[in-house]
Amino acid sequence: MTMRVAAILAVSMAPMATALDNGLALTPPMGWRSWNCFGMDISTEIISTQIDAITDRSRYVNGKKTSLLDLGYEYVGLDDGWMQCNSGPGGIGYHDADGIPIVDTTKFPGGLAPLNSYGHGKGVKMGWYLCGCGCPDQQNDPTQKRYRGDVDSLIKWGFDAVKIDGGGNMHNDSYFVELLNQTHHPVLQLYSFSGPINATTCPNNYHGVSGDIRPFWPDIARCLHAMQEWLTWDTPLSRPGCWAFPDMLEVGNIEGPLAATETRSHFGAWCITSSPLMLGFNLSNTSKMDAVWDVISNWEAIEVNQAWEGHPGFLAVGPGNQSSPSEVWGKPMSGGRMAVLMINQGDNPTTITASMESLHLDSTVACKVRDVWKHADAGTAKGTISVNLPSHDSHFVVLEPTSFPPPPPPPPSPPPSPPPSPGPPHPSPPPPPPPPSPPAPPSPPSPSPPVNPRPAWKCPPEALAVNKSGTASCTWVNGQRGVRIPPDADEYCEYLSQGYFGYTFPKGKETPEAFPCPVSAELGSNSATNTTGDWFCTINKDSSKGNFPQGAVANCSNLPASFGYSWHASATD
Protein backbone atom coordinates (compact mmCIF):
# COMPACT_ATOMS: atom_id res chain seq x y z
CA MET A 1 0.00 0.00 0.00
CA THR A 2 1.04 3.62 -0.44
CA MET A 3 1.83 5.13 2.92
CA ARG A 4 1.76 8.73 4.01
CA VAL A 5 5.21 9.93 5.00
CA ALA A 6 5.13 11.76 8.31
CA ALA A 7 7.90 13.10 10.46
CA ILE A 8 7.88 14.06 14.10
CA LEU A 9 10.45 16.79 14.47
CA ALA A 10 11.83 17.90 17.82
CA VAL A 11 14.79 20.27 17.85
CA SER A 12 16.36 22.86 20.11
CA MET A 13 14.92 26.27 20.79
CA ALA A 14 16.69 28.05 17.97
CA PRO A 15 14.82 30.81 16.12
CA MET A 16 12.50 29.49 13.41
CA ALA A 17 12.01 31.15 10.06
CA THR A 18 10.57 28.37 7.93
CA ALA A 19 6.99 27.23 8.38
CA LEU A 20 5.58 23.83 7.64
CA ASP A 21 3.64 23.29 4.46
CA ASN A 22 2.05 19.88 4.92
CA GLY A 23 -1.62 20.11 5.92
CA LEU A 24 -1.22 17.31 8.48
CA ALA A 25 -2.32 16.66 12.08
CA LEU A 26 -5.88 17.88 11.67
CA THR A 27 -6.54 15.73 14.73
CA PRO A 28 -4.02 14.86 17.47
CA PRO A 29 -1.71 12.05 16.24
CA MET A 30 -1.89 8.64 17.96
CA GLY A 31 0.67 5.85 18.24
CA TRP A 32 3.52 4.38 20.29
CA ARG A 33 7.19 5.22 20.89
CA SER A 34 9.92 3.16 22.50
CA TRP A 35 11.64 5.50 24.97
CA ASN A 36 9.41 5.29 28.06
CA CYS A 37 9.74 1.52 28.36
CA PHE A 38 12.94 0.52 26.49
CA GLY A 39 15.23 3.56 26.62
CA MET A 40 18.35 2.90 24.50
CA ASP A 41 17.74 -0.87 24.48
CA ILE A 42 15.93 -1.27 21.15
CA SER A 43 16.40 -3.67 18.27
CA THR A 44 14.68 -5.10 15.23
CA GLU A 45 13.24 -7.87 17.40
CA ILE A 46 11.86 -5.51 20.03
CA ILE A 47 10.27 -3.10 17.57
CA SER A 48 8.84 -5.97 15.51
CA THR A 49 7.06 -7.31 18.59
CA GLN A 50 5.50 -3.88 19.15
CA ILE A 51 4.29 -3.84 15.54
CA ASP A 52 2.71 -7.25 16.08
CA ALA A 53 1.10 -6.08 19.31
CA ILE A 54 -0.35 -2.85 17.92
CA THR A 55 -2.00 -4.77 15.08
CA ASP A 56 -3.19 -7.69 17.22
CA ARG A 57 -6.97 -8.22 17.17
CA SER A 58 -7.35 -10.66 20.03
CA ARG A 59 -9.19 -8.11 22.21
CA TYR A 60 -12.63 -6.61 21.85
CA VAL A 61 -14.31 -3.22 21.66
CA ASN A 62 -18.10 -3.23 21.73
CA GLY A 63 -18.10 -6.96 21.03
CA LYS A 64 -15.83 -6.73 17.99
CA LYS A 65 -12.25 -7.87 17.65
CA THR A 66 -10.23 -4.67 17.52
CA SER A 67 -6.56 -3.72 17.41
CA LEU A 68 -4.88 -0.58 18.65
CA LEU A 69 -4.29 0.28 15.01
CA ASP A 70 -8.04 0.05 14.40
CA LEU A 71 -8.53 2.51 17.26
CA GLY A 72 -6.19 5.04 15.65
CA TYR A 73 -2.78 4.23 17.19
CA GLU A 74 -1.07 4.20 13.83
CA TYR A 75 2.58 5.15 14.52
CA VAL A 76 5.29 2.81 15.82
CA GLY A 77 8.37 4.88 16.61
CA LEU A 78 12.00 4.00 17.33
CA ASP A 79 13.50 6.40 19.82
CA ASP A 80 17.13 6.80 20.89
CA GLY A 81 19.47 3.82 20.59
CA TRP A 82 19.41 2.78 16.90
CA MET A 83 22.66 4.54 15.90
CA GLN A 84 26.27 3.34 16.02
CA CYS A 85 27.75 5.74 18.56
CA ASN A 86 31.18 7.30 17.95
CA SER A 87 31.36 5.82 14.45
CA GLY A 88 31.84 9.05 12.50
CA PRO A 89 35.11 10.59 11.25
CA GLY A 90 37.62 10.77 14.08
CA GLY A 91 35.38 8.63 16.27
CA ILE A 92 32.88 11.47 16.69
CA GLY A 93 29.15 11.20 16.23
CA TYR A 94 27.15 8.75 14.14
CA HIS A 95 27.30 10.23 10.61
CA ASP A 96 29.81 9.20 7.95
CA ALA A 97 31.92 11.62 5.92
CA ASP A 98 29.00 12.19 3.52
CA GLY A 99 26.58 13.00 6.34
CA ILE A 100 24.71 9.69 6.18
CA PRO A 101 23.61 8.36 9.60
CA ILE A 102 25.25 5.06 10.63
CA VAL A 103 22.96 2.30 11.96
CA ASP A 104 24.05 -0.14 14.67
CA THR A 105 23.67 -3.33 12.65
CA THR A 106 24.25 -5.53 15.71
CA LYS A 107 20.84 -4.30 16.86
CA PHE A 108 19.31 -3.86 13.42
CA PRO A 109 20.75 -6.45 11.01
CA GLY A 110 20.30 -5.25 7.45
CA GLY A 111 19.60 -1.70 8.59
CA LEU A 112 16.30 0.02 9.25
CA ALA A 113 14.59 -0.26 5.86
CA PRO A 114 13.60 -3.95 6.32
CA LEU A 115 12.00 -3.11 9.67
CA ASN A 116 9.99 -0.34 8.03
CA SER A 117 8.87 -2.71 5.29
CA TYR A 118 7.65 -5.12 7.95
CA GLY A 119 5.69 -2.37 9.67
CA HIS A 120 4.17 -1.14 6.44
CA GLY A 121 3.12 -4.67 5.60
CA LYS A 122 1.19 -4.68 8.86
CA GLY A 123 -0.44 -1.35 8.06
CA VAL A 124 1.39 0.90 10.54
CA LYS A 125 3.47 4.01 10.02
CA MET A 126 7.07 3.82 11.17
CA GLY A 127 8.81 6.48 13.26
CA TRP A 128 12.46 7.42 13.58
CA TYR A 129 14.63 9.49 15.96
CA LEU A 130 17.53 11.90 15.29
CA CYS A 131 19.75 14.33 17.22
CA GLY A 132 20.01 11.79 20.03
CA CYS A 133 20.71 12.73 23.62
CA GLY A 134 22.13 9.33 24.52
CA CYS A 135 24.52 9.43 21.57
CA PRO A 136 25.05 13.12 20.70
CA ASP A 137 26.74 14.01 17.44
CA GLN A 138 29.21 16.89 17.89
CA GLN A 139 30.87 16.80 14.47
CA ASN A 140 31.89 20.10 12.92
CA ASP A 141 29.68 20.30 9.82
CA PRO A 142 30.00 23.72 8.14
CA THR A 143 28.31 22.38 4.98
CA GLN A 144 25.34 20.99 6.90
CA LYS A 145 25.72 17.64 5.16
CA ARG A 146 24.29 15.82 8.14
CA TYR A 147 20.95 17.60 7.83
CA ARG A 148 20.63 16.53 4.21
CA GLY A 149 21.85 13.03 5.06
CA ASP A 150 19.22 12.66 7.78
CA VAL A 151 16.36 13.87 5.58
CA ASP A 152 17.51 11.83 2.57
CA SER A 153 17.76 8.70 4.75
CA LEU A 154 14.34 9.38 6.21
CA ILE A 155 12.81 9.11 2.75
CA LYS A 156 15.13 6.44 1.31
CA TRP A 157 14.66 4.02 4.20
CA GLY A 158 10.89 4.43 4.13
CA PHE A 159 10.20 6.15 7.45
CA ASP A 160 6.84 7.74 8.05
CA ALA A 161 7.88 9.68 11.19
CA VAL A 162 11.05 11.04 12.77
CA LYS A 163 11.58 12.63 16.16
CA ILE A 164 14.53 14.99 16.17
CA ASP A 165 15.67 15.68 19.73
CA GLY A 166 17.99 18.29 21.23
CA GLY A 167 21.25 16.30 21.52
CA GLY A 168 24.43 17.13 19.63
CA ASN A 169 24.89 20.35 17.69
CA MET A 170 22.34 20.03 14.87
CA HIS A 171 20.04 22.78 16.06
CA ASN A 172 19.20 24.60 12.83
CA ASP A 173 15.54 23.68 12.91
CA SER A 174 14.65 26.08 10.09
CA TYR A 175 16.98 24.14 7.79
CA PHE A 176 15.38 20.86 8.82
CA VAL A 177 11.95 22.25 7.97
CA GLU A 178 13.19 23.63 4.65
CA LEU A 179 14.70 20.29 3.63
CA LEU A 180 11.64 18.34 4.71
CA ASN A 181 9.35 20.66 2.75
CA GLN A 182 11.53 20.14 -0.31
CA THR A 183 10.91 16.38 -0.23
CA HIS A 184 7.25 17.04 -1.18
CA HIS A 185 6.26 14.39 1.37
CA PRO A 186 3.74 15.47 4.01
CA VAL A 187 5.92 15.62 7.12
CA LEU A 188 4.27 15.63 10.54
CA GLN A 189 6.64 17.35 12.95
CA LEU A 190 7.00 17.36 16.72
CA TYR A 191 9.18 20.03 18.30
CA SER A 192 10.31 18.97 21.79
CA PHE A 193 10.19 22.55 23.05
CA SER A 194 7.49 25.12 22.53
CA GLY A 195 9.54 27.55 20.44
CA PRO A 196 8.26 30.80 18.87
CA ILE A 197 4.63 29.86 18.24
CA ASN A 198 1.78 32.35 17.94
CA ALA A 199 -1.72 32.50 16.50
CA THR A 200 -0.48 32.69 12.91
CA THR A 201 2.90 30.96 12.99
CA CYS A 202 3.67 27.37 13.89
CA PRO A 203 6.73 25.60 12.43
CA ASN A 204 5.65 22.15 13.63
CA ASN A 205 2.56 19.98 13.89
CA TYR A 206 2.91 19.36 17.61
CA HIS A 207 5.40 20.49 20.17
CA GLY A 208 6.57 19.50 23.64
CA VAL A 209 5.60 21.85 26.44
CA SER A 210 6.68 20.03 29.59
CA GLY A 211 10.05 18.27 29.32
CA ASP A 212 10.39 14.52 29.92
CA ILE A 213 7.61 12.76 31.79
CA ARG A 214 8.05 10.10 34.51
CA PRO A 215 5.54 7.41 35.64
CA PHE A 216 4.69 9.10 38.96
CA TRP A 217 1.53 11.09 39.60
CA PRO A 218 3.24 14.37 40.66
CA ASP A 219 5.21 14.37 37.40
CA ILE A 220 2.15 13.50 35.33
CA ALA A 221 0.32 16.42 36.96
CA ARG A 222 3.31 18.70 36.27
CA CYS A 223 3.19 17.86 32.57
CA LEU A 224 -0.57 18.37 32.45
CA HIS A 225 -0.36 21.76 34.13
CA ALA A 226 2.25 22.85 31.59
CA MET A 227 -0.58 22.82 29.02
CA GLN A 228 -2.38 25.78 30.60
CA GLU A 229 -0.66 28.56 28.67
CA TRP A 230 -1.49 26.82 25.37
CA LEU A 231 -5.16 26.24 26.24
CA THR A 232 -6.42 29.62 27.39
CA TRP A 233 -10.10 30.19 26.73
CA ASP A 234 -9.73 33.40 24.73
CA THR A 235 -6.57 32.76 22.71
CA PRO A 236 -5.61 29.07 22.64
CA LEU A 237 -2.47 28.28 20.66
CA SER A 238 -2.97 24.51 20.49
CA ARG A 239 -4.94 23.82 17.32
CA PRO A 240 -5.20 21.52 14.28
CA GLY A 241 -1.78 21.20 12.72
CA CYS A 242 -0.09 22.70 15.81
CA TRP A 243 -0.89 20.69 18.96
CA ALA A 244 0.62 21.24 22.40
CA PHE A 245 2.15 17.99 23.68
CA PRO A 246 2.82 17.20 27.38
CA ASP A 247 5.00 14.22 26.38
CA MET A 248 4.35 10.53 25.82
CA LEU A 249 1.80 8.67 27.93
CA GLU A 250 2.97 6.67 30.95
CA VAL A 251 -0.16 4.52 30.82
CA GLY A 252 0.98 0.94 31.48
CA ASN A 253 4.12 2.08 33.31
CA ILE A 254 2.50 3.44 36.48
CA GLU A 255 2.90 1.24 39.57
CA GLY A 256 1.59 1.26 43.12
CA PRO A 257 -1.80 0.91 44.82
CA LEU A 258 -3.36 3.75 42.77
CA ALA A 259 -2.02 2.53 39.41
CA ALA A 260 -5.44 1.80 37.90
CA THR A 261 -6.94 5.08 39.13
CA GLU A 262 -3.98 7.20 38.04
CA THR A 263 -3.81 5.44 34.66
CA ARG A 264 -7.40 6.38 33.91
CA SER A 265 -7.01 9.98 35.06
CA HIS A 266 -3.75 10.34 33.12
CA PHE A 267 -5.33 9.12 29.88
CA GLY A 268 -8.42 11.28 30.39
CA ALA A 269 -6.29 14.36 30.98
CA TRP A 270 -4.39 13.85 27.72
CA CYS A 271 -7.70 13.29 25.89
CA ILE A 272 -9.51 16.41 27.11
CA THR A 273 -6.51 18.66 26.39
CA SER A 274 -6.25 17.43 22.77
CA SER A 275 -2.80 16.01 23.39
CA PRO A 276 -1.32 13.60 20.86
CA LEU A 277 -1.84 10.11 22.32
CA MET A 278 1.56 8.38 22.15
CA LEU A 279 1.65 5.18 24.22
CA GLY A 280 4.93 4.29 25.90
CA PHE A 281 4.60 0.87 27.55
CA ASN A 282 5.65 -2.57 26.30
CA LEU A 283 2.69 -3.50 24.12
CA SER A 284 3.78 -7.13 23.97
CA ASN A 285 3.42 -7.49 27.76
CA THR A 286 -0.02 -9.14 27.89
CA SER A 287 -0.57 -8.52 31.60
CA LYS A 288 0.06 -4.78 31.17
CA MET A 289 -2.10 -4.66 28.07
CA ASP A 290 -4.93 -6.45 29.88
CA ALA A 291 -4.66 -3.97 32.76
CA VAL A 292 -4.98 -0.85 30.58
CA TRP A 293 -6.99 -2.07 27.58
CA ASP A 294 -10.34 -0.71 28.78
CA VAL A 295 -8.74 2.72 29.23
CA ILE A 296 -6.76 3.07 25.99
CA SER A 297 -9.56 1.50 23.91
CA ASN A 298 -12.27 3.77 25.34
CA TRP A 299 -13.71 5.10 22.12
CA GLU A 300 -15.71 7.81 23.88
CA ALA A 301 -12.52 9.20 25.45
CA ILE A 302 -10.76 9.01 22.07
CA GLU A 303 -13.72 10.83 20.51
CA VAL A 304 -13.15 13.72 22.92
CA ASN A 305 -9.45 13.76 22.09
CA GLN A 306 -9.98 13.79 18.33
CA ALA A 307 -12.90 16.25 18.21
CA TRP A 308 -12.40 19.82 17.07
CA GLU A 309 -15.05 22.46 17.65
CA GLY A 310 -12.78 25.49 17.65
CA HIS A 311 -11.07 24.94 21.01
CA PRO A 312 -8.52 22.37 22.29
CA GLY A 313 -9.73 22.35 25.91
CA PHE A 314 -9.35 24.70 28.86
CA LEU A 315 -8.86 24.74 32.63
CA ALA A 316 -12.14 25.69 34.30
CA VAL A 317 -11.22 25.10 37.98
CA GLY A 318 -7.74 24.83 39.44
CA PRO A 319 -5.04 23.75 38.89
CA GLY A 320 -5.37 21.40 41.82
CA ASN A 321 -2.78 20.76 44.52
CA GLN A 322 -2.64 19.26 48.01
CA SER A 323 -4.23 22.23 49.75
CA SER A 324 -6.83 22.84 47.03
CA PRO A 325 -7.21 19.54 45.18
CA SER A 326 -10.10 20.36 42.82
CA GLU A 327 -9.24 20.48 39.14
CA VAL A 328 -11.72 20.68 36.25
CA TRP A 329 -11.02 20.76 32.52
CA GLY A 330 -13.51 21.33 29.70
CA LYS A 331 -13.49 20.92 25.94
CA PRO A 332 -16.24 22.01 23.50
CA MET A 333 -17.84 19.22 21.47
CA SER A 334 -20.27 19.12 18.57
CA GLY A 335 -23.90 20.07 19.01
CA GLY A 336 -23.21 22.48 21.86
CA ARG A 337 -21.93 19.67 24.12
CA MET A 338 -19.08 20.11 26.59
CA ALA A 339 -16.66 17.37 27.67
CA VAL A 340 -15.65 17.72 31.33
CA LEU A 341 -12.86 16.01 33.27
CA MET A 342 -12.85 16.47 37.07
CA ILE A 343 -9.67 15.35 38.90
CA ASN A 344 -8.83 15.06 42.58
CA GLN A 345 -5.18 16.14 42.80
CA GLY A 346 -5.04 15.56 46.57
CA ASP A 347 -4.21 12.52 48.70
CA ASN A 348 -7.63 12.31 50.37
CA PRO A 349 -11.19 11.96 49.05
CA THR A 350 -12.79 15.27 48.18
CA THR A 351 -15.92 16.70 46.58
CA ILE A 352 -15.30 18.64 43.39
CA THR A 353 -17.84 21.12 42.06
CA ALA A 354 -17.87 23.18 38.88
CA SER A 355 -20.43 25.77 37.88
CA MET A 356 -21.88 25.74 34.40
CA GLU A 357 -20.62 29.31 34.00
CA SER A 358 -17.04 28.13 34.55
CA LEU A 359 -17.63 25.62 31.74
CA HIS A 360 -19.12 28.31 29.47
CA LEU A 361 -22.57 26.71 29.62
CA ASP A 362 -25.95 28.29 30.43
CA SER A 363 -26.63 27.72 34.13
CA THR A 364 -30.41 27.94 33.56
CA VAL A 365 -30.50 24.98 31.18
CA ALA A 366 -30.36 21.35 32.31
CA CYS A 367 -27.74 19.17 30.66
CA LYS A 368 -27.84 15.47 29.95
CA VAL A 369 -24.80 13.76 31.47
CA ARG A 370 -22.92 11.01 29.65
CA ASP A 371 -20.33 9.10 31.73
CA VAL A 372 -17.34 8.45 29.47
CA TRP A 373 -15.65 5.91 31.74
CA LYS A 374 -18.84 3.87 32.26
CA HIS A 375 -20.22 4.29 28.71
CA ALA A 376 -23.56 5.14 30.28
CA ASP A 377 -26.03 7.98 30.61
CA ALA A 378 -25.94 9.50 34.11
CA GLY A 379 -29.01 11.69 34.49
CA THR A 380 -28.95 15.47 34.23
CA ALA A 381 -27.17 18.42 35.82
CA LYS A 382 -28.21 22.06 36.08
CA GLY A 383 -26.34 25.04 37.45
CA THR A 384 -23.43 22.98 38.77
CA ILE A 385 -21.91 19.54 38.44
CA SER A 386 -20.45 17.88 41.51
CA VAL A 387 -18.79 14.57 42.36
CA ASN A 388 -16.90 13.00 45.29
CA LEU A 389 -13.62 11.44 44.17
CA PRO A 390 -10.90 9.36 45.85
CA SER A 391 -7.26 10.45 45.60
CA HIS A 392 -6.09 11.02 42.00
CA ASP A 393 -9.35 9.69 40.59
CA SER A 394 -11.34 11.40 37.84
CA HIS A 395 -14.90 11.86 36.61
CA PHE A 396 -15.10 12.09 32.80
CA VAL A 397 -18.44 13.19 31.35
CA VAL A 398 -19.98 14.91 28.34
CA LEU A 399 -22.70 17.46 29.07
CA GLU A 400 -25.41 18.01 26.46
CA PRO A 401 -27.77 20.98 26.97
CA THR A 402 -31.42 19.96 26.69
CA SER A 403 -32.29 23.31 25.12
CA PHE A 404 -30.67 26.50 23.98
CA PRO A 405 -31.65 30.03 24.91
CA PRO A 406 -33.84 31.85 22.35
CA PRO A 407 -32.14 34.39 20.14
CA PRO A 408 -32.15 37.96 21.46
CA PRO A 409 -35.16 40.07 20.41
CA PRO A 410 -34.68 42.45 17.50
CA PRO A 411 -33.80 46.03 18.42
CA PRO A 412 -36.82 48.33 18.97
CA SER A 413 -38.06 50.32 15.99
CA PRO A 414 -37.01 53.97 15.96
CA PRO A 415 -39.71 56.44 17.12
CA PRO A 416 -41.80 58.02 14.36
CA SER A 417 -40.56 61.28 12.93
CA PRO A 418 -42.27 64.45 14.28
CA PRO A 419 -44.84 66.07 11.96
CA PRO A 420 -43.47 68.79 9.71
CA SER A 421 -43.63 72.40 10.91
CA PRO A 422 -46.46 74.44 9.43
CA GLY A 423 -45.35 76.33 6.33
CA PRO A 424 -45.80 79.99 5.47
CA PRO A 425 -49.36 81.13 4.58
CA HIS A 426 -48.51 81.45 0.86
CA PRO A 427 -45.88 78.79 0.03
CA SER A 428 -43.96 78.87 -3.20
CA PRO A 429 -45.19 76.47 -5.88
CA PRO A 430 -43.49 73.08 -5.73
CA PRO A 431 -40.70 72.33 -8.19
CA PRO A 432 -41.59 70.19 -11.20
CA PRO A 433 -41.19 66.44 -10.60
CA PRO A 434 -37.98 64.86 -11.88
CA PRO A 435 -38.19 62.76 -15.04
CA PRO A 436 -38.96 59.07 -14.34
CA SER A 437 -35.97 56.80 -13.88
CA PRO A 438 -35.46 54.02 -16.41
CA PRO A 439 -36.72 50.65 -15.19
CA ALA A 440 -34.14 48.66 -13.26
CA PRO A 441 -32.79 45.54 -15.02
CA PRO A 442 -34.28 42.30 -13.77
CA SER A 443 -32.42 40.71 -10.86
CA PRO A 444 -30.41 37.65 -11.79
CA PRO A 445 -31.92 34.41 -10.56
CA SER A 446 -30.72 33.25 -7.15
CA PRO A 447 -27.95 30.68 -7.49
CA SER A 448 -28.96 27.13 -6.82
CA PRO A 449 -27.59 25.65 -3.62
CA PRO A 450 -24.37 23.73 -4.15
CA VAL A 451 -24.88 20.09 -4.96
CA ASN A 452 -23.44 17.73 -2.36
CA PRO A 453 -20.47 16.13 -4.15
CA ARG A 454 -21.12 12.83 -2.39
CA PRO A 455 -24.50 11.17 -2.04
CA ALA A 456 -25.59 9.84 1.30
CA TRP A 457 -24.94 6.19 2.04
CA LYS A 458 -25.24 3.94 5.02
CA CYS A 459 -22.17 2.96 7.02
CA PRO A 460 -21.94 -0.84 6.63
CA PRO A 461 -22.57 -2.47 10.03
CA GLU A 462 -19.39 -4.53 9.82
CA ALA A 463 -17.21 -1.60 8.80
CA LEU A 464 -14.49 -0.16 10.99
CA ALA A 465 -14.34 3.34 9.56
CA VAL A 466 -11.05 5.18 9.69
CA ASN A 467 -10.45 8.89 9.72
CA LYS A 468 -7.30 11.00 9.37
CA SER A 469 -5.81 9.35 12.45
CA GLY A 470 -7.25 5.91 11.83
CA THR A 471 -9.77 5.93 14.67
CA ALA A 472 -11.89 2.78 14.53
CA SER A 473 -15.38 4.18 14.50
CA CYS A 474 -18.02 4.90 11.92
CA THR A 475 -16.97 8.47 11.24
CA TRP A 476 -19.53 10.88 9.90
CA VAL A 477 -19.88 14.57 9.21
CA ASN A 478 -22.96 16.64 9.82
CA GLY A 479 -21.87 20.13 9.01
CA GLN A 480 -18.56 19.63 10.78
CA ARG A 481 -15.49 17.41 10.80
CA GLY A 482 -14.48 14.60 13.01
CA VAL A 483 -17.70 13.62 14.80
CA ARG A 484 -17.44 9.98 15.71
CA ILE A 485 -20.03 7.37 16.59
CA PRO A 486 -19.55 3.83 17.94
CA PRO A 487 -18.20 1.13 15.60
CA ASP A 488 -21.53 -0.74 15.72
CA ALA A 489 -23.68 2.32 15.06
CA ASP A 490 -25.90 2.46 11.99
CA GLU A 491 -25.94 6.03 10.75
CA TYR A 492 -26.04 7.82 7.44
CA CYS A 493 -22.95 9.60 6.19
CA GLU A 494 -24.59 12.64 4.65
CA TYR A 495 -21.44 14.40 3.62
CA LEU A 496 -17.73 13.58 3.71
CA SER A 497 -14.93 16.13 3.40
CA GLN A 498 -12.51 15.66 0.56
CA GLY A 499 -9.55 13.49 1.40
CA TYR A 500 -10.59 13.09 5.00
CA PHE A 501 -12.64 9.94 5.65
CA GLY A 502 -12.83 6.34 4.49
CA TYR A 503 -13.76 2.86 5.59
CA THR A 504 -12.00 -0.42 6.11
CA PHE A 505 -13.37 -3.85 6.80
CA PRO A 506 -12.22 -6.73 8.99
CA LYS A 507 -10.88 -9.70 7.08
CA GLY A 508 -13.69 -11.82 5.69
CA LYS A 509 -16.23 -8.99 5.94
CA GLU A 510 -15.59 -7.37 2.56
CA THR A 511 -18.76 -6.45 0.67
CA PRO A 512 -19.49 -5.13 -2.82
CA GLU A 513 -21.11 -2.11 -1.12
CA ALA A 514 -17.74 -0.93 0.15
CA PHE A 515 -16.57 2.64 -0.22
CA PRO A 516 -16.52 3.87 -3.87
CA CYS A 517 -13.15 4.32 -5.54
CA PRO A 518 -11.83 6.87 -8.05
CA VAL A 519 -11.93 6.10 -11.75
CA SER A 520 -8.17 5.57 -11.95
CA ALA A 521 -8.36 2.89 -9.29
CA GLU A 522 -11.38 1.30 -10.93
CA LEU A 523 -9.40 0.99 -14.13
CA GLY A 524 -6.80 -1.09 -12.31
CA SER A 525 -4.11 1.46 -11.56
CA ASN A 526 -1.93 0.39 -8.63
CA SER A 527 -0.46 3.86 -8.19
CA ALA A 528 -3.47 5.58 -6.64
CA THR A 529 -2.46 7.49 -3.53
CA ASN A 530 -4.59 7.67 -0.43
CA THR A 531 -4.26 11.19 0.90
CA THR A 532 -4.92 10.10 4.47
CA GLY A 533 -2.40 7.23 4.40
CA ASP A 534 -4.99 4.72 5.64
CA TRP A 535 -5.98 1.55 3.81
CA PHE A 536 -9.49 0.90 2.66
CA CYS A 537 -11.50 -1.97 1.27
CA THR A 538 -11.99 -0.32 -2.12
CA ILE A 539 -13.91 -1.70 -5.05
CA ASN A 540 -11.74 -2.93 -7.92
CA LYS A 541 -12.54 -5.10 -10.91
CA ASP A 542 -9.15 -6.78 -10.75
CA SER A 543 -9.26 -8.69 -7.45
CA SER A 544 -5.61 -9.68 -7.87
CA LYS A 545 -4.72 -6.10 -6.94
CA GLY A 546 -5.85 -6.73 -3.39
CA ASN A 547 -8.40 -8.23 -1.10
CA PHE A 548 -11.47 -7.02 -2.98
CA PRO A 549 -14.76 -8.81 -3.74
CA GLN A 550 -15.17 -10.53 -7.09
CA GLY A 551 -17.50 -8.82 -9.53
CA ALA A 552 -17.58 -5.48 -7.75
CA VAL A 553 -19.62 -2.77 -9.42
CA ALA A 554 -18.07 0.56 -10.28
CA ASN A 555 -19.45 3.62 -8.49
CA CYS A 556 -16.88 6.33 -8.89
CA SER A 557 -18.53 9.25 -10.66
CA ASN A 558 -19.26 11.38 -7.59
CA LEU A 559 -15.86 11.42 -5.91
CA PRO A 560 -13.43 14.32 -6.32
CA ALA A 561 -10.10 13.36 -7.80
CA SER A 562 -8.26 14.59 -4.70
CA PHE A 563 -9.60 11.68 -2.66
CA GLY A 564 -7.14 8.89 -3.50
CA TYR A 565 -6.92 5.26 -2.47
CA SER A 566 -4.20 2.85 -1.50
CA TRP A 567 -4.14 -0.86 -2.22
CA HIS A 568 -3.86 -3.92 -0.01
CA ALA A 569 -0.37 -5.39 -0.32
CA SER A 570 -1.86 -8.88 -0.68
CA ALA A 571 -5.09 -10.74 -0.25
CA THR A 572 -4.07 -11.68 3.29
CA ASP A 573 -3.65 -8.11 4.56
Secondary structure elements and pairings:
Layout: E1 30-33, H1 35-38, H2 44-54, E2 59-61, E3 64-66, H3 68-71, E4 75-77, H4 113-122, E5 125-130, H5 145-156, E6 161-164, H6 173-182, E7 190-191, E8 206-208, H7 217-225, E9 243-245, H8 259-272, E10 277-279, H9 286-296, H10 299-306, E11 314-317, E12 326-332, E13 338-344, E14 350-355, E15 367-371, E16 376-381, E17 384-389, E18 394-401, E19 457-458, E20 464-466, E21 474-476, E22 483-485, E23 492-493, E24 502-504, H11 519-522
Helix pairs in contact: 2-4, 7-8, 8-9, 8-10
Structure description:
The protein has 573 residues and is an alpha/beta fold. It contains eleven helices and 24 strands. It has helices at 35-38, 44-54, 68-71, 113-122, 145-156, 173-182, 217-225, 259-272, 286-296, 299-306, 519-522, and strands spanning 30-33, 59-61, 64-66, 75-77, 125-130, 161-164, 190-191, 206-208, 243-245, 277-279, 314-317, 326-332, 338-344, 350-355, 367-371, 376-381, 384-389, 394-401, 457-458, 464-466, 474-476, 483-485, 492-493, 502-504. The strands form eight sheets. A six-stranded antiparallel sheet has the order 11-12-13-18-15-16, covered by helices on one side. Strands 6-5-4-1-10 form a five-stranded parallel sheet. A three-stranded parallel sheet has the order 7-8-9, with no helix packed on it. A hairpin with a 6-residue loop joins strand 21 (474-476) and strand 22. Helix 2 packs parallel to helix 4. The longest helix has 14 residues, at 259-272. It is globular. Residues 1-18 and 442-573 have low confidence and may be disordered.
